[in-house]
Design goal:
The protein is mainly α. It is 74% helix and 0% strand. The longest helix has 24 residues.
């Protein structure tokens, strides 16, 4: 299955990176992370068997990698934190070239509007809901092939981001600049968002914005499979693109590259249109 091949490819790439980092210097995290990714690779062997073991097995055998994304994201942060190298200085130059200033620093300070901030931070916190509701709703509505395609597209998106994070770590404006303190940051959603990020955020995972790329890919794939679902998610995803910059979570170029990556992924997956019909369409005909 294509999903399993994507997972296996990611495991091979990450194991190669861990091997290099482990041999290149003192990396105490290397054995545990190498084992963890090897176990993920073992899931590729287990998943096809699970998909033949009933409804629950089908679900877990299809969604397993998507469910493990938070752990994989945290693993990237562990690697980057130990390596302690960043390329923010290069991204800051890109930011000046593209936007003419550090928009992630200035926007929330130049426009400290509480209502706008409330909307932006709600959209930002909707990220997990966007990401998982798209394939889940497609699956539960019987659009199974569309759900598989959505998961496939999301895994390709995130694995590209994760490998980029390890090879080109960027911590982002939340860590590089002092946080703003004004009417925009005093609203409840803004305070809650900062609290969530304080509890655990992966270091060096700003460029490109996987939040932007993932949300847009999830929304685009949802729209392909179930237009109404895509239209429901679209306003939140559009707001999230702005929110990651307004909230000082990402540089403007992080968000911009996330949009570009999502566009490339959606274009690539639009070449093959899956054929899937909701389960309700397979009801037995009424007896004559």
């Amino acid at each position: 299955m294509a999903l399993d091949r994507v997972v296996l490819g990611y495991v091979v790439v990450v194991e190669a990176i861990l091997l290099y980092l482990g041999l290149d210097g003192d990396a105490p995290y290397w054995p545990s992370l190498a084992i963890a990714h090897a176990l993920l690779g073992a899931c590729v062997w287990i998943a096809p068997r699970a998909r033949r073991a009933g409804a629950v097995g089908q679900f877990l055998g299809t969604f397993y990698a998507l469910l493990l994304l938070p752990a994989l994201y945290s693993a990237v942060g562990v690697i980057n934190l130990h390596e302690a190298r960043t390329y923010d200085h290069l991204v800051l130059r890109f930011e000046d070239m593209v936007f003419g200033s550090q928009v992630s620093y200035r926007w929330i300070r130049d426009f400290p509007n509480p209502v706008f901030s409330w909307v932006m931070h709600v959209c930002y916190m909707a990220y997990a809901g966007i990401l998982y509701s798209a394939p889940l709703a497609l699956w539960l509505s019987g659009r199974r092939e569309h759900a598989r395609q959505a998961i496939h597209a999301l895994l390709v998106t995130f694995f590209i981001c994760y490998v980029t994070f390890v090879l080109f770590p960027v911590v982002g404006p939340r860590y590089l600049f002092e946080l703003a303190h004004n009417a925009a940051t005093d609203v409840g959603p803004a305070r809650f968002t900062q609290w969530v990020l304080d509890q655990g955020d992966a270091w060096g995972t700003a460029f490109p914005s996987s939040h932007v790329a993932g949300a847009l890919v999830a929304t685009g794939m949802a729209y392909r499979g179930w237009r109404r679902l895509g239209l429901v998610l679209a306003p939140f995803s559009a707001g999230l693109v702005l929110a990651v910059v307004y909230g000082q979570f990402h540089y403007g170029v992080d968000a911009l590259l996330g949009v570009v990556l999502a566009g490339v992924i959606l274009a690539a997956f639009s070449i093959r249109e899956p054929t899937s019909v909701p389960v309700a369409a397979f009801r037995a005909p009424d007896p004559a």
